[in-house]
Design brief:
The protein has about 210 residues and is mainly α. Helices cover about 65% and strands about 0% of the residues. It has a single domain, classed as Alpha Horseshoe (Serine Threonine Protein Phosphatase 5, Tetratricopeptide repeat). The longest helix has 19 residues. The model has no long low-confidence stretch (mean pLDDT about 90).
Length: about 210
């Protein structure tokens, strides 16, 4: 697969709706250990609304489709992660505006802008036990593999995201309710970084 077209993007949104619904209870349990416990509900709602609103869109500009998805997410799930995820999609979409098909290099631009948007909005940096710790390795992998086949590059980006998630177990949380636990947050994978891995999985078309 050398590029992704509009139909592929709608399929990705469908994948994300399904994946976050399937993982809703898992994310609720994971987030409930030291957080608010609403992450699974927030993500399931955000991606369900995004897909349902865009499944029949006549828009062919992939950047605009992603931007609209982000706006729907932010409106449907105005929690911290809903807002961050919405921001990521809006920033990423803006970075690849005007294209009816996107390459691996475009995906790299999308995820770099996605990640930067979340970092700026959430005031987070790598190593602080957040979604950034799974997204940044994936985004950087896509940059390194920008000349490769899109499907293969995304598979490798997923491995990088999973490695990043595993690394969060050794980090001390700096943001959100989990940050109150400080050193006690060590040994637990970050729920936000888990959501980041699920996000990358959704971009992989079977």
């Amino acid at each position: 697969m050398s590029s992704l077209g509009k139909d592929d993007i709608i399929k990705i949104l469908q994948n994300l709706k399904q994946l976050f619904n399937d993982n809703k209870d898992f994310l609720v349990e994971l987030d409930g250990r030291m957080g608010d416990g609403d992450l699974g509900l927030t993500m399931a709602k955000a991606f369900a609304v995004a897909y349902d609103e865009l499944v029949d869109t006549e828009e062919s500009d992939i950047g605009k489709i992603f931007m609209k998805a982000g706006m729907q997410m932010a409106k449907a799930a105005p929690s911290t992660m809903g807002t961050l995820m919405g921001t990521g999609f809006m920033r990423g979409g803006k970075a690849i505006g005007g294209k009816s098909a996107i390459s691996t290099a475009d995906l790299a631009d999308f995820f770099q802008a996605f990640m930067t948007g979340i970092m700026e909005r959430g005031k987070a940096q790598p190593g602080e036990k957040t979604i950034i710790d799974s997204l940044k390795p994936a985004a950087d992998t896509l940059v390194q593999l920008s000349a490769e086949d899109t499907a293969q590059a995304l598979q490798k980006a997923l491995v990088s995201a999973e490695d990043g998630l595993e690394a969060t177990k050794n980090m001390v949380a700096q943001h959100g309710r989990i940050a109150y636990y400080k050193e006690q947050s060590k040994g637990h994978e970050d729920p936000g970084a888990t959501a980041g891995v699920i996000l990358i999985k959704g971009f992989i078309l079977s």
